[in-house]
Amino acid sequence: MLIPSLRKRHPLTHEPVPSYGPGRDLKFQDIEDLLETYLSKREIASIYRAYNFGFQAHAGQRRASGEAYISHPVEVARILAGLHMDSKTISAAILHDVIEDTPTAKKQLARGFGSEVAELVDGVSKLSKISFTDQAEVQAENFRKMLMAMTKDIRVIMIKLADRLHNMRTLGVMRDEKRKRIARETLEIYAPIASRLGLQSFKHELEDLSFKALHPKRYVTLEKAVKQRRGNRKGLLKKIENSIDKRMRQDGLAGKITSREKHLYGIYRKMKQKDLSFDEVFDVYAIRIVTNSIDNCYRILGALHSLYAPIPGRFKDYIAIPKANGYQSLHTVMVSPYGVPIEAQIRTVEMDQVAEAGIAAHWLYKSGKVQKETSNWISGLLDLQKQAGNSKEFLENVKIDLFPEEVYVFTPKGEITVLPRGSCPVDFAYAVHTDIGNTCVAARVNNHYVPLQTQLRNGNTIEITTDKRSIPDPGWLNFVATAKARSSIRHHLKHLQKRKARKLGKDLLNKALHAFSLSLSTVDEKRIEALLDELKFKTREQLYEDIGLGNRMAPLVARQLAPLLDEPNDSDKPLGPRNKGVRPLGIASDEGMVIHLAKCCYPVPGDRIQGIATSGRGIVIHRPECPNISEFRNRPERLIDVQWEPDADSLFQVMIHIDTINRRGVLATLASTLSDANCNIDHVDMDDRDGNTSSLEFLISIKNIEHLEKVLKKIRTMDVVLSADRKYI
Asked: Cβ distance 472 to 485 under 8 Å?
C-alpha cells in the first residue's frame, strides 16, 4: 500500500506535487508488492520519495517507444528488487538518469536522499559534460569511471547491469545500426561483467537479447529447432529424472531435481566455435540437482555414476576449486541408455543461489561480505587503472580479464592460483606479485625449466626464478594473457623509458650549453623558469624528457637559455653539436628505450658513428656513410656527437653476406663455424643463385669490429666459401 502523505508534497521543495494525470502511481504499484516482501514500510517510503522526485525530474520526457521516461528507471528498480537489493540501491536505480538527462545536480540528490544514494547515481551517470577526441574515447572513459565507482561500491555495477538489461529488452524500437552497436557492446562488456560477478541469469538474458539483435534470422531458426527438440525429448527427460530420483531415494539422498535448457546464445556459440550442426549439440538440456549439504553433493555424484557411465574428462569439481566469480558446483556428463549424453550439475541450495544471483546473493542472505574471488577482481581493477596510460588502454585490459576460461595451477607450496586459459609463467609471476613479475628471469613447470612463453595447463606446479637486476622484456607483451601482466609490463617500460629519456635529455642539454660556456648548474634559475612557462612544462624533468625523446632539440633549447650577449663567437654558422672541448655522448649498448642502433647499417664498436635525434624515439645511431642520414646533413640541430664507450661489453648485431659452393649440409657447417667463433646467429636468409652457388645472409651478434674481422677471417678459410663480407646497405 502507498503512503498517502508522501504524495502531497515534493520531497525537496516541500511544494505541493501536481497531478500528472490518471494512473500516475500505477508504475510504482508495479514494484511495491515486490518491495513489501523484504523491505520495511519506512524503506518503501524512502523509495517512493525517490519515485516522486524522479517522476517530476523526467516530466515530459519520452522513450523511443513513446512511453513516459519514468517507466525505464522503475523497470530497472524492479529487476534489482527481484534480487532483494537494499532500499538505497532501489532508490538510486529510480534516480539513475536524473543527473545525466535532467538539470538535477549531485548535490541536490545528496541533500534530498543522502550522500550514499547520490554517489551511486553519480557512479552510473555518463561524462556528458567533458569533451573527447572520438566516440571510442567517450565509451572508454565512461566505462573507466563506472568501474572505478564500482571499486568503491559494487552496487554501481548492479544498477548499470539492470539498466542495460532493460534497455536490451526494449531494443527493438531502435534503428538497425544503433541496435547492433548496443548489442555488440553488451556482448563485449556487460554480459562478461555479469558473468564475472556470478549473475548468470543476467548474463544469459543479455547474451540472448544481443544474439537476437545481431542475428535475428539465426535466432528465430535456432529457437524453432530448440522448441522442436524440447517436444521430442520431453518424455525422455522425464524418464531420466524418474530414474535418478529412484536411485537417490534408494540411497537415502534428498535433493530437488530439475531439467535445464541451455540458452540460445550458448548453443549458437558452441556450434560456431566447434563447427557443429544443431543435431550434433547434445547438451541442449541438462539435469540440475540441488541438495542440502556438500557431503550429499558428492554422495549424489556417486549415485549418478553408478546409474549411468561417466564420460572420461567431462567431470569438473567447482566445489573444491570454485570459479573466479565464486561459482561452485559438481559437473559431470554421462551416457544414458537412450544414447543421449546427460549433463548433470549438483550443488547446495546456497551454491544454487550464488550461481543464479552471483554477488547479489549476499544481499539475499543479508550478508555484506563479497566473495573473495570477486573482491580480488575488483581490487585488481584499481591496479589496472593506476598503470593504464589512458581510458582506451584500461578498457582493453579489462576486456582481457572478462573472458577467463580458467586454468588452475599451483605454487610450490601447493596453493591454487586461477589464471585465464592461455596464461604463461610470466602471467603466473605477476599474479603472485608485481615485483616477482618485473624481475622474472626463468620458470620451472613441474620441476622442469621451460620457456617463459609456455602455456600453462591445469594442475601444473610453477616455480619462478627472479633477479633483482632484471627488468620486464617488451617481447613479453606478445604472449602474456592476463590484464595485470600486460598493464604491469607497459607501466614499468613507460617509466623506465621516461627515466632514461630524462637522463639523456639532461646530458644533451648540458653538452649543448657548453657552446655558450654554460651548464645547467650555472644558468640563471629565473631564465629556466621562464622557459618552462613558455614551453608549458611544469618541471625541468618534463623538459629533459622531451629532449631525450627527440621531440625538442637540445641546441635550440640551449640557445633560448643562453643570454643574448653570450652567443657563440661564430654566430653566423648554424648551431650544431660539434663543439670543441665537449666530450661526445657515450654509447655502451643498444638500450632499446631512448638510444637505438640503426637496423639499416648495424653500427658496432670500432665503427665511426653519428647520432640522429628523432621525434618520439630518442637518438638513433648510424654509421656516417649510411645513406639514411644524408637528409640530416642540412639539419645540424638534429645531429648528436656520439662515441663508443671504451668498456662497452654488450653484443651488437651485424649483417654478413656469404657466397658458397652449393653442397649438402653447407648451412649446418657455416652455423657450426659461427658458433665456434663465439657469435650468436639471430637470423639467416638463403638464396640459390644458379644451382652451383648459394648466397647466404646471416644476422649475427658480435662484441666489436675486431671480433667481426676474426669471424670473417675464419669463414673465408672454409673450402666451400667463395667470399664473406660485412653487408652494407
From this structure: no
